[in-house]
């Protein structure tokens, strides 16, 4: 289930239940939203509700479409009789993640368009080299020296661009899928100046938001930590679920359980420990989540600035390289003519 679809579902459903609407009516209405997969899932929930099945149980049958956090929060809401509160809180969590993502994409949109415009300008030059004919006859001088002219040259250029894009996209895909255990390099990434701490802050913010939401809904600490670790979308962090569980069963506090995972920085653990002393787990993590929310927004701005700078540097490097190459080719050709 896409993040935007999950946010919309939780908000509409939570608002409807809060207003006292009938569950079957809400599910029937939800079957009219989203993709075919989402509509089919909502119809299945409706069929389950008609047969007396709980909403969370029906969601489990549709896994992995519904996120584990949504299923767990729905189950807790059903048990406590506060389903509308659970779903509306979850809607806020999803909205927070959407806002961070939009902020990042919005900040790199303009330099991305500049990169595209630069490639289009190069494509136009390559096309003109094949389309125009010099007054003396023959072919236009290849000022770029790459042997690319006309339509075939343009297609070759964009073929190279596609290959580079596929390689970069494949690397990102492999990282998020943790192929070959590549996520084990996350601690090394965190050591990169400026960018590393920013990435870690965003991850900790997501962890805190989910942990705060789960604890406030009434989930036990073990399940809350497990869901919070899962919300990072990283197998590296998910690996800490078992050590945290063992620590809590051994009588450790929340801060002690997180420390047992060996995943979190000392500063973060200290903040959790101080927050625990000043209030309950749910209250303390909620305060911490608010604090890291502000830090995450700054971190997104930092990463966006780095990404923007890299794109601009790429555009400048490409243009400077092509200008210098054209100058060398042109003046080199003129020099050869003078030597004849």
UniProtKB/TrEMBL annotation:
It holds the Pfam family T2SSF. The chain crosses the membrane at residues 104-130, 157-176, 188-207, 298-324. Gene3D superfamilies: Type II secretion system (T2SS), domain F. It is found in: Cell membrane. It is a multi-pass membrane protein. Residues 9-127, 207-324 form the Type II secretion system protein GspF domain. It comes from the Bacteria. The keyword Cell division does not apply. One of its GO terms (cellular component) is plasma membrane. The keyword Transmembrane helix applies. Keywords: Cell membrane, Membrane, Transmembrane, Transmembrane helix. Belongs to the GSP F family. This is Type II secretion system protein F. It comes from Novipirellula herctigrandis. The lineage of its organism: Bacteria, Pseudomonadati, Planctomycetota, Planctomycetia, Pirellulales.
């Amino acid at each position: 289930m896409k993040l935007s679809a999950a946010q919309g579902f939780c908000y509409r459903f939570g608002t409807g239940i809060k207003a006292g609407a009938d569950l079957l009516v809400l599910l029937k209405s939800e079957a009219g939203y989203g993709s075919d997969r989402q509509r089919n899932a909502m119809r299945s929930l409706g069929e389950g509700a008609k047969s007396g099945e709980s909403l969370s149980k029906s969601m489990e049958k549709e896994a992995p479409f519904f996120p584990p956090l949504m299923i767990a929060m729905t189950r807790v809401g059903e048990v406590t009789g506060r389903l509308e509160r659970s779903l509306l809180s979850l809607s806020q969590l999803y909205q927070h993640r959407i806002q961070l993502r939009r902020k990042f994409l919005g900040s790199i949109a303009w330099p991305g368009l500049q990169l595209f415009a630069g490639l289009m300008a190069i494509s136009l030059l390559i096309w003109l080299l094949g389309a125009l004919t010099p007054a003396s006859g023959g072919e236009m001088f290849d000022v770029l020296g790459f042997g690319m002219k006309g339509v075939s040259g343009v297609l070759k250029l964009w073929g190279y661009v596609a290959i580079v894009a596929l390689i970069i996209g494949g690397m990102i895909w492999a990282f998020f899928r943790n192929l070959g255990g590549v996520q084990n390099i996350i601690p090394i990434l965190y050591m990169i100046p400026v960018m590393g701490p920013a990435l870690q802050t965003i991850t900790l913010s997501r962890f805190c938001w989910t942990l705060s939401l789960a604890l406030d809904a009434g989930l036990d600490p073990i399940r809350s930590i497990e869901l919070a670790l899962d919300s990072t979308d990283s197998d590296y962090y998910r690996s800490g679920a078992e050590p945290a569980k063992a620590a809590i069963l051994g009588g450790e506090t929340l801060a002690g359980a997180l420390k047992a995972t060996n995943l979190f920085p000392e500063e973060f653990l200290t903040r959790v420990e101080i927050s625990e002393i000043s209030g309950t787990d749910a209250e303390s993590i909620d305060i911490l989540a608010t604090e890291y929310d502000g830090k995450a927004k700054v971190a997104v701005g930092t990463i966006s600035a780095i990404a923007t700078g890299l794109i601009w540097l790429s555009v400048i490097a490409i243009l400077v390289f092509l200008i210098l190459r054209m100058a060398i080719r042109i003046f080199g050709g003129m020099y050869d003519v003078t030597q004849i």
